[in-house]
Amino acid sequence: MLQIVVAQLLLPAKNGAGSYDNVGPQTFIVQIRHADTHQPLDGIAVGDIGPKYGYASMDNGYMLFNHCRVPKSAMLSRYAEVSDETGAMNRHGHPAVVYGSLTFVRGQIIMHARLVLARAVTVAVRYCAIRRQFRDRDSTNDGDEEMKVMDYPTVQIRILPLLATTFALHYTGEMMHTLYHKSRETIEKGDFGPLAELHSASSGLKSLCTMLTADGIETCRRAMGGHGFGGGSGLVGINADYLSKPTVEGDNWMITQQVAAHLIKKMTAAVKNPSAAPQDPTDELFQYYLNNRDHRISQNVVCAGTISDQSIVDVFQWRAADLSYRAYQARVVEKKPWTRLMIQLHTLSRAYSEQILVTTFHNSLNETASSLSGPTPDVLRTCFRLYSLYTLDAFASSFTMTIAAAEDSVHALPDAILDLMMELRPHAVKLVDAWSIPDWLLESALGRSDGKVYEELFDMAHRRNPLNKTTFNPDYRSEEIVKGSGDKGDAILAKL
């Protein structure tokens, strides 16, 4: 069995004193096990690291090497090689190309986040659209039915923004998938220009999207009350399985430093040469910011009950650019220690990633509107507005601090969000049905597509529960006594 091993490469020092220079990590193809016996080769020890929280199906392990020799030809040498003549390291292309596979995996994680959150939201929307609890307090008719749980604003504010978020993640995941493959084609031709932007975007979005999904699953579970606590909800397993994602492929807080470092570098270049030809959307944004920041007028996202979609995009982009400039000032101009700036840099990464989500959502709707029929474009537009305004309201102080959004507009957000939720409520079930997630994948009594929630819930709790197959007296001092009707509850069950 062969493995790709990442190891530090040591080369003889140029001074010839018998010492070695560390030229950094490189990748090697190493045979780990014997081809016939499958036992680890001499000098190699492998083992399992034991159980962990979530992702139980992945058998992560460890590997130890003790004087394990591999030939020079084992080193992967597409972008770096050791010269046979001089013994020196020769590099080809951009050093950041080593992030290629990591960037791809992070892109896949973004795509996966939309599906997992869609599963949780599907269960929550379907159940809360069936579950009834309490009559309207203002009702004057004693014969009125109890209200559906989904009609309560306190439930809507937890679930419907997450429903909108699933579509934001969907369009962004599609964009990252396309961007990766386009960048890959460019890199294959020897142009490594898009690599840094791709790595920065994938790092920031991985952090944000996995956080939104992990928190969203738990929010959906709690919104379903006591039944959400039970195994029949289908969210207990999803919750445990997904909670590894904010950690794998880069801890969600630590990798935001990579995003911030890239943005500070970009802003530094823009300040030094504001008239340079932009290489990517970030360059365009920063140049626009620098040319307009001295006479910026904060935008009215909501004015007299009217929502401006372009203003939504503008305020998210302006906030990201302004926070990037503040980080540049703190780090480059004022020379503040990096460690002291970490919280500020995390905030910057999140703002940058949120503007990618909002911008991509908006652009995707404009591109696909003509191919969608009926009320679908308008409903998706409502989703875009709800996700954007809900996010804006949650971080309102940063939008006013950066002069992105007008204060009067921010004060109008709560009412605008309520109106959007009322507008989206009649379409909620159809929107989750549009994901076409099969019942076997949901594995949830509460989220069944046919609406038979309580029949399935009881069937799971009674007939399919092995603990209910045996009834016995736990008192060891007495003979076996079965209390009840004597027919194992058949008479009672027949009435249900």
From TrEMBL:
Signal peptide: none
Pathway connected to this protein: Lipid metabolism; peroxisomal fatty acid beta-oxidation
Lineage of origin: Eukaryota, Fungi, Dikarya, Ascomycota, Pezizomycotina
Subcellular location per the Swiss-Prot or TrEMBL entry: Peroxisome
Family note: Belongs to the acyl-CoA oxidase family.
InterPro entries, sorted: ACOX_C_alpha1, Acyl-CoA_Oxase/DH_mid-dom_sf, Acyl-CoA_oxidase, Acyl-CoA_oxidase_C, AcylCo_DH-like_C, AcylCoA_DH/oxidase_NM_dom_sf
Highest taxon of source: Eukaryota
A single Gene Ontology CC term: peroxisome
Enzyme class: oxidoreductase
UniProt name for this protein: acyl-CoA oxidase
This protein's UniProt keywords: FAD, Fatty acid metabolism, Flavoprotein, Lipid metabolism, Oxidoreductase, Peroxisome
A Pfam cross-reference name: ACOX
GO biological process: fatty acid beta-oxidation using acyl-CoA oxidase; lipid homeostasis
GO MF term list: acyl-CoA oxidase activity; FAD binding; fatty acid binding
Chain ranges of the Acyl-CoA oxidase C-terminal domain: 310-477
Main location per the UniProt record: other
Enzyme Commission number(s) of this protein: 1.3.3.6
Catalytic reaction annotation: a 2,3-saturated acyl-CoA + O2 = a (2E)-enoyl-CoA + H2O2
Named cofactor requirement(s): FAD
Domain called Acyl-CoA oxidase C-alpha1: residue spans: 99-264
